[in-house]
Amino acid sequence: MEAGRVWGNKKHWLMLVLPLWLAGCAMGSLFQPYPSQAQSWVHPASGRNASIVQHLERAGKGRDGVLYLQELGLLQQRLGNDTASRTVFADVINHYEHTDAQALIRVTGLASQTGALLINDNALPYRAPDYERIFTYSYQALNYWAAGDVTGTAVELRRAAQAQRMAEQHREKELAKADEDTAPLDLSQYQGYFEGLDLAAGAVKSSFQNAWTFYLSALFWEAHGEYNDALVDYKKALELHPEADWLKADVQRVSRALDGQRQRGIGTVAVIYEQGDVPARQEVSLPIPTPHGLFLVAFPSYSVTSGSVARPLTFHVAGQSAQTRVLADVGALAARNLREQAPGMLIRQVLRATGKYNLQKKANDDFGGAGAFLTQLFNLISEQADRRSWLGLPAYAQAGRITVPVGEQQVLLSGPGGDASVTVPVVERGLTLIHVTERAGRLVARVLPVQEGPL
Amino acid sequence: MRVVMAMMLGVALLASGCASKVEYGDPQARETVTPDFGSSDLQMIATKMVDDMMVFPPVVELTRNRRPVLFVDRVKNKTSEHVDTESITDTIQSRLINSGKFRFVDMTVVDRVRQQLEYQQDSGMVDQSTAAQMGRQIGAEFMLYGNLSSIVKRDNSTKDVYYKFTLKLLNIQSGIIEWSGEKEIRKTRSRSLFGL
After folding, report:
1. Fewer beta carbons below 10 Å: N end or C end of chain A?
2. Which residues of A touch B34 (CB under 8 A)?
3. Contact status of A50 with chain B (Cβ, < 8 Å)
4. Which residues of A303-331 are buried (b: 16+ CB within 10 A; e: fewer)?
């Protein structure tokens, strides 16, 4: 009996100390919102690159490692360190493989689930959603492309296609399962809170399908005379943008090429354009019903105004001009992905709200005002929405192509972020790819090695 | 005292469990760490290709009285993995050479051989009576080339990988494929239900 009381007292003290300890230590994005951390690498200040890279490398070893490594891989690519970027993205891909191979029910997984129930969803290790994985493979393909490794590029493009196919199958199974089960939680009662999210998510048909990646691989296969593969990928891109006449023209051209009708004396100049920054998740306060009444909780969402506007890039070559078009609205993919996760998040929020209320009530009963104040403080600090997502991604991934006579050609790129001019080689039936990125109003262009001939 | 002993024992057990160690293993042992392309696949492919080729009647006939000269073109990697296909053809080449039935010319060192020949001929450093002569190399009669392709299927609990390796022996002069071999490999990985 005596021992029981001592233990009981210990538990009370633990209850008081735990919140203080948790509040005191900044653990990744547990108490500091991810978007505010990410500012330093999304728009790195000049001269700080080395320290940011170091910081991301360190963070890459942590619980949310894969998220930081994704950011690091893209940052290295944008800094022109293709080899470093390749190593980092290879780690990221290994991480995906490892996560996919893990046991379905894991002891450590249960521990972080419990942590998430006590504190917030940021305690769950970051799991890269499908749309981010597909971008990783595309960027890795560009790393191999830049290094002139054709086989490596082909491997990564195949992986990207595989990831899209598997995500599609997975989603179909989930939908079939959802039809069988009754909906666990009705989202409609929170409709007003998810207005921005719904609006953003409505711009795309699924949370992962990426016509930009399909288009990039179609261009690659076409340049290497793999017309069958190119046709499949152009058609997939067209499926996602059925209104795009320019994609229909691509499908027709490759169909003709399959029949042996190939034009001579011309080559392709294609521009892939990454525009703007993907919007970050916002935090909204959501009233959650618990047995003790409504409890206000922090929930991630996207605001109506958070998205930037898509602006095309115009490119002029040999007296002709063309524009890039949006193939992937990344903000919409992210919003749709969050929309799909929302029911699960809400269930966890209801459990957490109940738990936190009980903690507060117990502290109030046992320790009076001081206890209640401390637990309230803990609840306030720990109430953080899960705002983690890959913020280095562009807001819009665009692309466009043009056929021009072979030889050296000057390409003039003009977009809202200014003008740039590059001289590129054009070879017969080959592909010259210009990779343009717009960051903070500045255009950065690089010309990748020409692709031609059989693989 | 007993408690201290028990604790020490516990710590010792824990420490020994955590220490990393290095061991030598059998290079021929079955490797099943992941379903990705691995050493066992490479060995299985090389063994199957060499065995098939050596018992194929026209090839047996061809090598009865002479050792034909071959060169390895390349094996195209059409999988979704970064596989070093040169390593597979190297193993096949070694086994064919060691069988004593074939000879090979190596196209990957042509530039370095040319450099050496030029050095021997033109540098004035080499005794011309021992210098290797230009234009005396033997032309390859056959070419070895092929494909490695894969089909990957995956759902929430299983990953299934199917590999197909195809190798062809082509007569350079006639353009006839004299022999063709194929090796299929299927690997499946199931996710366990419980784990750490």
Report:
1. N
2. 97, 101
3. no
4. beebbeeebbbebebeeeebebbbbbbbb
Shortest CA gap A200–chain B (Å)? 29
A151–chain B Cβ distance below 8 A for any pair:
yes
Residue of A nearest to B74 (CA): A455
**For A401, left (φ over 0), alpha (ψ -120 to 50), or beta?**
beta
For residue B148, give how far its alpha carbon lies from the nearest alpha carbon of chain A (Å). 12
Q: Which residue is closest to B190 within chain A, CA to CA?
A: A101
Residue A270: CB atoms within 10 A of its CB come to 25
Q: What tokens appear for B3 in the block?
A: 């408690």
pLDDT value of position A256: 94
The rounded distance, in Å, linking the Cα atoms of A76 and A88 is 9
**β-strands B103-105, B69-78 pairing:** parallel
Whether residue A444 is predicted with pLDDT greater than 50 in this model: the reply is yes
Residue A12 Cα, gap to closest chain B Cα (Å) = 28
Strand partners, A317: A320, A411
What is the three-class DSSP state of A102?
A: coil
ipTM over 0.90: no
Q: Which residue has the higher pLDDT, A358 or A92?
A: A92
Summarize pLDDT for A28-60 with one digit per residue, the tens. 676 778 998 898 888 888 888 899 999 999 999
Give the angle A134-A234-A398 at the CA atoms, nearest 5°: 60
Q: B86: distance to nearest CA of chain A, Å?
A: 13
Q: Is the pLDDT of residue A357 over 50?
A: yes
- HEC assignment per residue over chain B: CHHHHHHHHHHHHHHHHHCCCCCCCCCCCCCCCCCCCCHHHHHHHHHHHHHHHHHCHHHHHHCCCCCCEEEEEEEEEECCCCCCHHHHHHHHHHHHHHCCCCEEECHHHHHHHHHHHHHHHHCCCCCCCCCCCCCCCCCCCEEEEEEEEEEEEECCCEEEEEEEEEEEEEECCCCCEEEEEEEEEEEEEECCCEEC
**How far is the C-alpha of B44 from the C-alpha of B28, rounded, in Å?**
10
Residue A439: beta bridge partners? A442
**CATH code matching the domain that covers A2-447, chosen among 1.20.1250.20, 3.50.50.60, 1.25.40.10, 3.40.190.10:** 1.25.40.10
pTM of the model: 0.88
Walk me through the domains of chain B, giving residue ranges and CATH numbers: 34-190 (3.40.50)
Mutate to test the interface with A, among B77, B80, B149 (most CBs of A within 10 A): B80
Nearest to B193 among A103, A166, A169 (CB): A103
Q: Rounded to an integer, what distance in angstroms lies between the CA atom of residue A34 and that of residue A388?
A: 5
CB proximity A176 to B under 8 Å: no
H helices of A259-329, where? none
Cβ atoms < 10 Å from Cβ of B56:
16
- Kindly state the helix (H) or strand (E) to which residue A74 belongs, with its residue range: helix A65-78
Residue (of A275, A338, A366) closest to A10 by Cα position:
A366
